[in-house]
Amino acid sequence: MSLSVFFAQILNGLQYGLLLFLIASGLTLIFGVLGVINLAHGSMFMIGAYTAFWVARTTGSLWFALPVAIVGGIVLGTLLERFLFRYFYKREHLDQVLLTFALILIFEEMRSLLLGNDFHSVPVPAALDFSVSITSTFAYSAYRLVVIGVCLVLAAALFYWIERTKMGAIIRAAAEKPEVVDILGIDARRIHMTVFAVGTALALIAGALNAPLSSVYPNMGDGLLIISFVVVVIGGLGSVSGAFWSALLIGMIDTLGKAYTPKIAGIAIYLLMAAVLLWRPTGLFGQRT
Amino acid sequence: MNHTPAMLPRTRTGWLLIATGFAALALAPFAVSSYHVELLTTALIAAMLALSLQLLVGVTGLVSLGHGAFYGLAAYVVYFLSPEGAAKPMWMTLPIAMAAAALAAFIVGLFALRTKGFFFLMVTLAFGQMIFFVFHDTGIGGGTDGAYLAKPTVSALGYTLELPRRQRPIGTFYVALIQLILMYAALAALLSTLYGRTLEGIRINESRMRAIGFDTQRAKLIAFTLAGALAGAAGHMWAMHRGVVNPEIVGWHKSAEALLMILLGGLGTLHGPIIGAIAYLGLTEVAQLVTERKLLVEGLVILAAVLILPKGLSGLGYRRKSKAGTKTGGRE
Q: For A107, which residue in chain B has the nearest alpha carbon?
């Protein structure tokens, strides 16, 4: 196997891992801060991807997909939190599971009603449809490099928000000791709505960025939901930095595994999860159960 | 003092109602078309799956999203044992399918039961999907298309029950019904034992159970394995009924549907999942008559169920405890 192919796989792994981080960070924040399990998070990824497909088809350009996904994600997240999830924070896990399972069915059926059940490829924007020569023998897709860049910018912004701003401090406090946030008289509702909207928007952005790479198809959110769960389990519940390292690890293992040992690649990440559970049941970076 | 377990009927009338329900099911094939007999068989199989899951959810308080995987795995085991053109007897396929499902559940349980709450949900889902991907991504069970199999036969003492083609659905229906009744009876008996009480204690307060000296981890692992074996019986019955396996029956949507049946029928009783399964399949059947958008109706039904059904369904068991032990719970 040539070295340049190996480098390409490393970059692919990095790109996939960063994309996983966008999805898993929202999941882990929603678990940690809101105390709700959101199975429909994968549907948000699907909605983002189909948004990109729809925008590209109607406007003829993918450039508008990102702003549309961001705005759409924030609006969708806010509405879902305000009118549904808010009433489920104190409910049993079983109720949360079924609520979000129902949302998956409804979103998939709406996707089918609006845009049909066909596979669609989404063209890479013409301006980015070329390869960058990194060395004389090794070129890499410009679009994938842009995806890596956008993901890194978003990750940096998310870390800044969580680690350096007042609201981020409250969010971290709410993930660790929700009672304290209540006692201090902080308006938890605003925090909840913001976290849910940001998490949803990140998943939509991930879907939109990924659309030209994977094409769009029914139930595409399902697989990513499960892998994001594995990321959260390994990273630790409610830990954004845990999700980051864990997402990169999983992205790398999955990509390299599929390239070099395709037969066991599908199972590799689950074996890793099993090993982590034996060693540290609360995840590599997690504190609480 | 030894009360009747909260999930079983308290009075003789209650038991009579359960018996009447099963009797009504047994008589149903005489009243409906063979299409509806097959539909009822599907409902009975779903009821078996939901009932096996109730041991975890309603009894022990463990919400698992990987239960469908053990069900699907057992169906695939039937395919391996009894491929097209080489039917095997049920006395051979059923125990092996159940044992395989139990073994898978035991291994998954070893890892998953190290976690609690959200983690348990995610880990059971992930391991369940791992089993799904084995059948989905590799060719061992016909890949994504699935495969046909020879339905296991009912035979004993060298005598095979050969039904005319027209009556086969009825035969399958009774095989499913008998298994469902046996499963209900077995779980009812289990609930009355000390082990059954231990599981209920774990649901209500696990740390207290541990504090008074019960090995709760072991009890949960046994329950997880047992529930897996019973899900295996349901999966075996699915293969026997449909004669086909595909990755869809292993997927986690199956687990979610079983959870919904439990919620519909009631968390607080052992017979709830059976009612829930029949109600759910009836509902989707009606929905299919009205619209082609079956999943949309399904989603809206679930949404309505979680929004409208009182959160207190799980509390049904505790509320009646003042009357416990007066009539049927007379064992000392």
A: B296
